[in-house]
Design goal:
Layout (H helix, E strand, L loop, with lengths): L3 E3 L2 H5 L7 E6 L5 H14 L4 E6 L19 H11 L3 E3 L3 H4 L19 H4 L3 H16 L3 E5 L3 H13 L5 E5 L19 H31 L6 H9 L2 H14 L2 H16 L6 E9 L13 E11 L2 E11 L7
Parallel strand pairs: 1-4, 2-3, 2-5, 3-4, 5-6
Antiparallel strand pairs: 7-8, 8-9
Helix pairs in contact: 2-3, 6-7, 8-10, 8-11
Organism: Streptomyces griseoloalbus
GO cellular component, one term: cytosol
GO molecular function: ATP binding; pantoate-beta-alanine ligase activity
């Protein structure tokens, strides 16, 4: 399948619409993670709908000293991958098309959530991101828009913007795609040397260590529910050697677990990576509520996000995984 390249919103608006229009927003340099987004959009659009992939390197998202100039531009390859994955159209506007008259004087503010984690590390980034997403939603006029969960804070802010400002578009998150060694797919991975890539694996390994600690904790808490409630039951269980196991489970579940233990398990991996050559330079490790990206407490229940950001050499990478608190079972 060949995707049609369009450069202006007028060309896109002139296309006949017979079904649902879905959109996947990218900055180009497409990889298998983007292809997964496009295939998901294709499935939702169905044979009568339309899949639009936007390719636009947004200058408002890059701060001083960031990699705007060296960010990869691979439009020909992007067209091929998008078409193969099921896109009907690639909308690749110029900066003048998106920002006629220069940088916009009126922008969308990400608010307090946009000042945490990624926002603290990259001041103004989320204001620029939300501004261009809002403009591209208006320019493409989709029914459904798809974004990767790897950029968890970005996804949360887009959902909040759509809800708070009544955009009337469904926002769908698609799970992170990883390479065989666990590294989350990113356009920036191509910057890594072989040695840097080996160090960079610590990001996903740290998240998996936190996830495994959480799963073990949940299993121990479930086991603790079996602690006998009466003396007779305790004596009966003691006779078959079960009371010690139940007591051990209860001790671990009540004293050594929770968010602190998950953070500690992940940080251990990151601390070891900081001693490698080349070293991993940690920006943050956080276990947060996805509704506002504040750190969760010991009594938290519901969905949470374990997120990490770090630099290896000159490349900054982010990653995250979802965890579920308050139910007995493995992490999501």
């Amino acid at each position: 399948m060949t995707a049609t390249l369009l450069r202006t919103a007028a060309e896109l608006h002139a296309r006949a619409r017979t079904g649902r229009r879905t959109v996947v927003m990218t900055m180009g340099a497409l990889h298998e993670g983007h292809a997964t987004l496009i295939r998901t959009a294709r499935a939702v659009a169905g044979p009568d709908g339309e899949v639009v992939v936007t390719v636009f390197v947004n200058p408002l998202q890059f701060g001083a000293g960031e990699d705007l100039d060296r960010y990869p531009r691979t439009l020909d390859a992007d067209l091929e991958l998008a078409g193969t994955a099921g896109a009907d159209t690639v909308f690749a506007p110029s900066v003048d098309e998106v920002y006629p008259g220069g940088e916009p004087q009126v922008r969308i503010s990400a608010g307090p959530m946009g000042e945490r984690l990624e926002g603290a590390a990259r001041p103004g980034h989320f204001d620029g991101m939300l501004t261009v997403v809002a403009k591209l939603l208006h320019l493409t006029r989709p029914d459904v828009a798809f974004y990767g969960q790897k950029d968890a804070q970005q996804l949360a802010l887009i959902r909040r913007m759509a809800r708070d400002l009544n955009f009337g578009v469904e926002i769908v998150g698609v799970p992170t795609v990883r390479e065989e060694d666990g590294l989350a797919l990113s356009s920036r991975n191509r910057y890594l040397s072989p040695g840097e890539r080996r160090t960079a694996l610590a990001l996903s390994q740290a998240l998996f260590a936190g996830r495994d600690r959480h799963a073990a904790q949940q299993a121990l808490r479930a086991r603790a529910q079996e602690i006998p409630a009466t003396r007779a039951r305790a004596e009966a269980l003691s006779a078959i050697g079960e009371s010690r196991a139940a007591a051990d489970a209860h001790a671990v579940a009540t004293t050594a677990g929770g968010p602190a233990a998950i953070r500690a398990a992940a940080r251990l991996v990151l601390d070891e990576a900081a001693r490698l050559d080349p070293p991993l330079i940690l920006d943050y490790l956080a276990l947060v509520d996805p509704d506002d990206f504040t750190e969760i407490g010991d009594d938290f229940t519901g969905e949470a996000v374990l997120a990490v950001a770090a630099r290896v050499g000159t490349t900054r990478l982010i990653d995250n995984i979802p965890l579920t608190f308050g139910t007995f079972g493995a992490a999501a």
